[in-house]
Amino acid sequence: MPPQNVQTDDIQTETPDPATPTRTRGADTRALTHVLFGRLKGLEPGTAEHGRVRAALIEANLPLVRYAAARFRSRNEPMEDVVQVGTIGLINAIDRFDPERGVQFPTFAMPTVVGEIKRYFRDNVRTVHVPRRLHELWVQVTGATEDLTTAHGRSPTTGEIAERLKIPEEEVLACIEAGRSYHATSLEAAQEGDGLPGLLDRLGYEDPALAGVEHRDLVRHLLVQLPEREQRILLLRYYSNLTQSQISAELGVSQMHVSRLLARSFARLRSANRIEV
Predict the structure, then answer these.
(1) Quick one: pLDDT at residue 3?
(2) What is the pLDDT of residues 134-148, one digit of tens each?
(3) H helices present in 42-131, as ranges
(4) Beta bridge partners of 190
(5) What percentage of the chain has pLDDT greater than the value 70?
(6) Cβ 237 vs Cβ 248: under 8 Å
């Protein structure tokens, strides 16, 4: 049954009341998402109605994108840009989601949204965040360098650039250093002179556990959706290394019941892990 204040006939959604408890708002969003995916399935892609339902799905699930974007708040990038990139991941997830697989949409969409944001930071963000003042001054230093090079037929000295711009030499040096953050150096490039090893030769070994980072992040996201008792049993079994007999004594239930709950938890996790993200 659709949540209150949701009209599925004309696909109208309303901003949740801030006074509404977070858990209630989340349940309403999940219910609305379920209804909208039901409608989307019967519509022809490319039609106006399909576009309206798809847009409503995006709007309803934007809080998921903001939640994911908040994890990257320390990166000093405008949050609006991060949310915009995460929304691209949300749209991709909506286009690929199959409600018949029995998995909640947030579970399916979160790895895609986070992956899109991480890709943005990897491919588009400068390796060092340059303060705005240095960025503006760097543009002036670059222009002065080009003009002086043309005038003298050689690369200008730091003092000549500083004299041209009427600024201290220390600021020119700071701008030149900041300008290096705009260019990535090849890992195989030699460092500071011939014969010295490149960055690639000085890197440490590849940690084999890195391959499981994304998987562990997904599992951590799924665990919090299990019932409290099943979460506790998994923690006792695999973090406290208790046997099923010890867990049954700890919780006051039979060992057979513990075994059934473990099997049910594994089935849920395996089902979610089979999703292509």
Answers:
(1) 41
(2) 767 877 888 888 888
(3) 48-60, 62-70, 79-96, 105-123
(4) 198
(5) 69
(6) no
- Cβ-based neighbour number of residue 55 at 10 Å: 15
**Architecture of domain 127-181 in CATH?**
Orthogonal Bundle (1.10)
| Angle value at C-alpha 114, between 109 and 117, nearest 5 degrees | 130
Q: Within 13 Å, how many C-alpha atoms sit on residue 191's CB side?
A: 10
Q: Name 198's bridge partners.
A: 190
| Amino acid making up residue 138 | W
Query: What mean pLDDT, rounded, does the chain reach?
Result: 76
Q: With 70 as the cut, is the pLDDT of residue 186 above it?
A: no
Q: Compute how many other C-beta atoms are within 10 angstroms of the C-beta atom of residue 117.
A: 25
Residue 207 region by backbone torsions, left for phi larger than 0, else alpha for psi between -120 and 50, else beta = beta
Would you place residue 214 in the very low, low, confident or very high pLDDT band (cuts 50, 70, 90)? Answer: low
Q: Is the dihedral of CA 43, 48, 54, 59 positive or negative?
A: negative
Q: ∠221-273-215 over CA atoms, to 5°?
A: 55
Are 255 and 244 in contact, with CB atoms under 8 Å apart? yes
Tens digits of residue pLDDT in 232-268: 888 888 878 889 999 998 888 899 998 998 888 888 7
Averaged over 46-59, what is the pLDDT?
91
Q: Yes or no: say if 200 and 210 are a contact pair by the CB < 8 Å rule.
A: no
| Token pair for 172 | 């020119």
Q: Is the pLDDT of residue 41 over 70?
A: yes
Domain boundary assignment for the chain = 22-123, 127-181, 215-273
The CATH fold assigned to 215-273 is: Arc Repressor Mutant, subunit A (1.10.10)
User: Are 64 and 90 within 8 A, CB to CB?
Assistant: yes
Task: Quickly name the fold that domain 22-123 has.
Answer: Four Helix Bundle (Hemerythrin (Met), subunit A) (1.20.120)
**Torsions phi, psi for 168 (to 5 deg):** -65, 150
Per DSSP, 73 falls in state G
